[in-house]
Amino acid sequence: MNQNRTILLLGDINSIHLHKWIIALKEQFKVAVFSIDEISDQNNWLYELKNVSVYPAEKKSSGSSSALSYLKHIGRLKKVYKKEQPAITHAHYATSYGLLGAFCKPENYCISAWGTDVYLFPGKSFLHRVVFKRILSKAKYLFATSNNLASEMKRYTRKDIQVIPFGIDTRLFSPAPAQGEIFTVGTVKGLDLIYGTDRLINAFSEFSKKHPDSRCLIYGKGPHKDIFARQINDLGMNEKIHLKGFVSNQEVPSVLNTFDVYCAFSRSESFGVAVIEASACEIPVIVSSIGGLTEVVRHNETGYIVNGDDTQEIIRHLEELYHNKAKRKQLGANGRVFVYEHFEWKKNAGEQVNFYFRLLESKK
Question: Has this prediction a pTM greater than 0.70?
Answer without folding.
Answer: yes
